[in-house]
Amino acid sequence: MNAGANLLLAKESRSEVWDQNTTVIVLNYAALSLAVLLTIWGTERIVRRLAALEETVADVLRVDQQRAFREVNVVGVPFLGAIALAVAFGVTALIEDGLGPAVLRGATWLVLGVALSTYLWTFAALQLGLDRLGRARLDVHRASVAPDLGLRPVGDVAFMGLWLLLAWLVPIVWTGIPDTVGFVLGLGVLAAALGVFFLSLLRLHRRMVEVKESELAVARNLYAQAYEPVRNDPTLDVLAERQSLLSAADALEKRARAIQGWPIDETTLARIATIVTSVVAVTIARLLLDPFGL
To answer: Which of 117, 127, 166, 187 supports an S-S bond with 200, CB 3.0-4.6 Å?
Structure first.
C-alpha cells in the first residue's frame, strides 16, 4: 500500500528511497516487510525463552525472574514509540515535501512502528532483566559444576535478542541509506543495542570472574599443599607418594581455568565481532558509493 501510494505522488514528493534504482527500491520494501515479520516472531520467541529460563537457571541464580523481566508486560511504551516514529517521519516529510507525503509516511510508520517498537521495548526489557539477574546471589556450589556456571541459557537468550535485532535492522539501514531519518535512527538503534547488550551482561560477567578467581585460589592452595613435601624433600620416592594428590590438584586448577568469564562462549563473542565489523564496513561502503550511483 505504501509503495502504491508513493507511485501516485509526484516524483519530487516521494520518499528518498525512490530516487534509487528499481532493485534498491524493491530490496528496501522487502527488508521492511521482513523486519515486521521478524519483530512479531522474535518478540514471541524471546518471551517464550524467558519463561523457560526460569526453570533452567533457578538452581543457580536466586532471584524472582518474573519480577526481573517485569517490563515485558508493559504495553504503553511501544505505542508511544510508534507515535514517535510516525511524528519523526511525518514532520520531516512535511518540511521537505508537503502535507500529502507527510500524512502518508506518518500513517505508514504509525502502523509499522507498533511491531518494530514492540520488539525494541521487549529487547530493552530483556537487557534490564539480565542486569537484574547479575545482582542476584549466585549459588557457587551448584554453579561451579560446569564451565559456563549454568548460565549458558542466559547468554543464549541475550544473544538471540541481539541477532534478531540485527537481522531486521541491518537490511533496513543498508537499503534505506538515502533516507536520512531512517538511516540516522537505524544506526542509533544499532549502536545502542550493542552497548546495552554488553552492559546488561556486565554484572553476570563480574560474578563469573569472582567465581573463577575463587576456584583458582582453592586449586592453587591445594596444589601448594600437595607440592610442599616434594619441595622440602625433592626425591623420587616423595614425588611418587604425592603423585595422585598433585594430579588431582592440577586437574582442579585446569577446571578452574576453564570457567568462562561471560555467559556466552568465545565462538559467540567472535560471531558478534564479525557481525558488527561487517555491518560497519558495508554501511561505510554504501555511504561512499551511493553518491556515484553504485
So the answer is: 127
